[in-house]
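Suppose a classmate hands you a notebook page containing two proteins, each written out with its sequence and a corresponding row of structure tokens. How would you begin to make sense of it? This section walks through that situation. The first entry is reproduced here exactly as it would appear on such a page.
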Amino acid sequence: MKSWMLCLLLPLLAFQDRSYTIGEVMRNARQLQNDSTAVKITGYLTKKLRGNNYLFEDRTAEIQVDIDPKYLPQRPFTDREEVTIKALVQYDINKPVTLKVSQPVKND
């Protein structure tokens, strides 16, 4: 019985750590928001907007992300350093797709 449950859960655990591009997130925003799983994206924080909002981009697109200061890296970084974020997708029908960072930003 336990092995059967593990077989059902294993694909879900692997899916949660999948990397996405911003383009994929924007195309699948409704589904990703409904899944309530954090998406992992690698790219560049290119511009600080207002408050805790930043412009994040990769080779496919750009998106606005909300990063609480406690999740920003301790080590300073530039807009030319690649960073990895894990964030929840925020989708509303008549608004742009945005991301809410849910774990510390990594700039390894």
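The notebook's second entry, a different protein, reads as follows.
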Amino acid sequence: MSPTAPTTTSLSPDWPCQVKSPGSRDWERTATRWLRDLLPARYAGYSPLVRHHVLLARHAQIQVQHEIRAVRVALQTSRAELPTLGVAPAVIENTIRMYAMELEQLGRLARGVRLVMEALMDDGPAPRRTAAQRR
């Protein structure tokens, strides 16, 4: 293999497609852009998060975990609370399905954030996860 040939790294299926592979050119830039996009826009001005990628990843991890908790509460209380708000049964069922899909998406995001954070800390390839570790 020539010195300029890209290295092939087996990344976890949970590695975010928006983030280049660790060790590749500009991978940290793509990682920080992706992490910033997970946070509310007002966080873009906080210099510790802008300057320290691991802090940004940590905050994104906390943010996603809070979103997971919020969606779980919304899902668990939908059948009891939405009828009292005058929401139609069909809308309630669609809302429950929406929350369930969002929980799946947030779970994938949480795993991706964890992998990116580990790679930023190691500045190396993200480890592959087994199915049991992704749960």
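A careful reader of the second entry would note: Helices lie at 27-37, 47-51, 53-81, 89-122, 131-134.
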